[in-house]
Design goal:
Radius of gyration: 18 Å
Order of helices and strands: EHHEEEEEHHEEEE
Distance between the termini: 46 Å
Shape: globular
Number of strands: 10
Largest sheet: 10 strands, antiparallel
Number of domains: 2
Strand order of the largest sheet: 1-3-4-5-2-7-10-9-8-6
Strand content: 35-45%
Length: 253
């Protein structure tokens, strides 16, 4: 039984930002796509769970990147289940380029909820999970709790039709877009993202509106809190940057 599998993805035009690098939300989506493919292969994918009125929900996520791939690059995302506890399971990822050179790691924490009650269930409901555990960690550790963030409003959002996924809540990449949009293009030209962390705390659904608070806690170390007008805190996140060598961006290159 294979407990680790690799999935290949090509970085296409739809995945890149203005610097022709894969955007944070797109890379996050590809990592989750690898997770979904692997869960399907193992027999506990989203459609299988939904046929029993359950669904997967992402609780926490962390990713640490040496660099972000460019347009037309092919990347390989290797994934495996590190552990299964009573309510959460940890799934890890290794991200490599076409030559299988390591360019990043990610780790995620997942729960299963009852689609009718929207409450978490015990993971012993899915005993098949235990057969795929590979107790192998990554150098970046597992995603951890992010403390309350007090800062200034840096962005606003409202959930529309195009934000809603099959679970009838805002798809997680949109949370990341709302956070990433807190910075200017000039900022991204001068900085490169090293580490991203996010805690999902509450579902955001159609019609919800709110703000993104931003706080600089140390040099290049930003924390965020998404707060809806009616439901309160929906998620917290962190983006740790490194200074990028100053350069002029030429969209023709």
């Amino acid at each position: 039984m294979d407990k680790k599998r690799k999935y290949q993805f090509q970085i296409s035009t739809q995945h890149i930002d203005f610097q022709k690098k894969v955007s944070l939300s797109s890379l996050f989506h590809l990592v989750l796509k690898a997770a979904g493919k692997d869960a399907d292969h193992n027999g506990f994918g989203l459609l299988k769970l939904q046929s029993e009125d359950y669904t997967w929900v992402l609780s926490r996520f962390v990713m640490d990147m040496e660099r972000f791939p460019l347009e037309n690059e092919t990347i390989t995302i290797e994934t495996w289940i590190q552990d299964v506890a009573a309510m959460f399971t940890t799934r890890n990822f290794r991200i490599a380029n076409e030559e299988d050179r390591l360019i990043g790691y990610a780790s995620s924490s997942w729960a299963v909820i009852d689609m009718k009650t929207r409450e978490s269930i015990l993971l012993d409901t899915l005993p098949s999970l235990n057969g795929f555990i590979l107790a192998e960690t990554t150098p970046i550790g597992v995603p951890t709790r992010i403390a309350n963030v007090k800062g200034d409003i840096a962005n606003r959002f409202e959930v529309k039709y195009s934000h809603i996924d099959v679970n009838r809540h805002a798809s997680s990449p949109f949370y990341i877009q709302w956070i990433a949009d807190c910075f200017s293009l000039d900022f991204y030209l001068k900085h490169k993202l090293k580490r991203f962390e996010i805690n999902f705390l509450k579902e955001i659904t159609f019609g919800d509106a709110g703000v993104v608070y931003q706080k600089l806690k140390a040099e290049n170390d930003y924390f965020f809190q998404l707060v809806t007008l009616e439901k309160g805190i929906a998620c917290r996140a962190r983006m740790l940057f490194e200074d990028e060598e100053t350069r002029r961006f030429d969209p023709g290159n």
